[in-house]
Amino acid sequence: MIKEATAYFLLRPFFSPGRLDNWTLENPTTSFLQGAVPANCQELNPSLHPHLGLEDTMVHIPRVRPGDYVAWHCDTIHAVDKVHGGASDSSVMYIPACPLTEANAEYLARQRETFAEGLPAPDFPSSSEGESQHRGRLTPEYVMENISLEAQRAMGLVAFPVEAKGVLQQERRVMTRANAILGFTSK
User: Fold this and answer.
1) What is the pLDDT of residues 114-126, one digit of tens each?
2) Mean pLDDT (whole number) for 35-57
């Protein structure tokens, strides 16, 4: 099912709606991407993506309690409830694992800024003030005083160890560029 949904998701922009069984290639082609808004996540919904049958094919996770852990691959179609019916805050924490590249360092620089302001990450679909008004929220100062050097580095708060023992030449080059993007050295 994943390969079919992925193929649909990739090909969908090239088709114009008709009846469910009679879509046609878009002519002329446009840059319109259904459900996409610049600087936000791709939104999949039944009206723009009827062939996915989202009402029937989305798999819901069971009830979770504080401390429970749910994992999914971010490249698969997934969602969180659109309406929160609980009595207290709920949140989804996205913990990515990604290689150090210039593009990821550029994103990390933007994410570091939004974190410092208590706002959602730059690519998170939200117009809210995030946690900016929460008392006791996590701050860069707290991180620098209480969290490991590796975590500080992952959050873009300290430089990558260019001169560490065992660092390969290619790694050193990427870390040097990332440090410059993050403002730790001159470009």
Assistant:
1) 999 998 888 776 6
2) 79
CA–CA separation, 14 and 24 (whole Å) = 8
* Nearest 10 degrees: Cα torsion 170, 179, 126, 95: 50
Name the packing angle between helices 169-181 and 102-117 (round to 10°): 40
178 contacts: CB under 8 Å, gap ≥ 6: 100, 102, 104, 105, 108, 160
Tokens of 23: 């879509």
- Report in angstroms the alpha-carbon separations of 145 from 51, 115, 155: 51, 16, 14
Q: How far apart are CA 32 and CA 13, in angstroms?
A: 7
Cut 0.70: pTM above it: no
Query: How do residues 71-118 score in pLDDT, each as one tens digit?
Result: 777 667 777 777 777 787 766 666 666 789 999 999 999 999 999 999
